[in-house]
Amino acid sequence: MDKLDPGLMEVLRPFLGSSWVVFGTNYRKAIFMFISNTGGEQINQVALEAWRSRRDREEIRLQELEPVISQALLDNPHHGFWRSGIIEEHLLDVVVPFLPLQRHHVRHCVLNELAHLGLEPREEVVQAVLDSTTFFPEEEQLFSSNGCKTVASRIAFFL
User: Fold this and answer.
1) Distance in angstroms (rounded) separating the CA atoms of residues 105 and 111
2) In this structure, how many other beta carbons lie within 10 angstroms of the beta carbon of residue 63?
3) What is the Cα–Cα distance from 153 to 2, expressed in whole angstroms?
4) What is residue 136's three-state secondary structure?
5) Residue 82 needs a FRET pair 20 to 30 A away by CA distance; which of 71, 75, 100, 158 works?
6) Which of 136, 124, 130 is CA-nearest to residue 110?
7) What CA–CA distance (Å, rounded) separates 86 from 50?
8) CA distance 53 to 90
9) How far apart are CA 138 and CA 78, in angstroms?
10) Residue 89 has what pLDDT?
């Protein structure tokens, strides 16, 4: 969504609105999923503040994240939802934020990828992949910069 030109999403508004029937087709049971990186920095900040308050990442409630994501979306004139009727008419049902992954989450990704490859987990390989992964903020090294996206390609370097 953050890569789309503002206003482009308006073409979907009739399919999301209250009429449900567009050009003779009923879209009542259709599911539309919009994926965006907008609000990522704000989500990371909420997660970091929770960690500093000694709260587990899993304790972060959606109600804490929705306002910061909405504000990030509204403040970005380059976003596909900028001044969109979809937002103004509250046509989105659910926002599903993706929280940043911590070291133990990435460890699970490495173990899962090794299993997927039919390999026995070796601690030195797991540790090497973790050590090659970038974590932030610089001081705490708490969250993975890329989540698990680069795990599969990194494993080959350490086998």
Assistant:
1) 10
2) 7
3) 26
4) strand
5) 100
6) 130
7) 31
8) 33
9) 29
10) 81
Report which DSSP code applies to 61. -
Report the C-alpha gap between 155 and 111 in whole angstroms. 10
Cα–Cα distance for residue pair 39/88, rounded to 1 Å:
18
Which residue in 95, 82, 109, 97 sits closest to 46, CA to CA?
97
Q: Taking the model in full, what pTM does it have?
A: 0.79
Of the listed ranges 42-51, 66-75, 112-121, the least confidently predicted one is 66-75
Residue with tokens 């940043």: 100
> What is the reported pLDDT for 19?
66
Can you give the pLDDT at residue 20?
64
Measured torsion, CA atoms of residues 98, 56, 53, 136, in degrees rounded to the nearest 10: -50
Distance CA 110, CA 105 (A): 9
Task: Tell me the C-alpha distance between 99 and 144, whole Å.
Answer: 10
| Distance of alpha carbon 6 from the chain centroid | 21
Q: Measured between alpha carbons, how far is residue 57 from residues 46, 51, 52, 81, 102 in Å?
A: 9, 7, 11, 28, 9
Tokens of 54: 């000694």
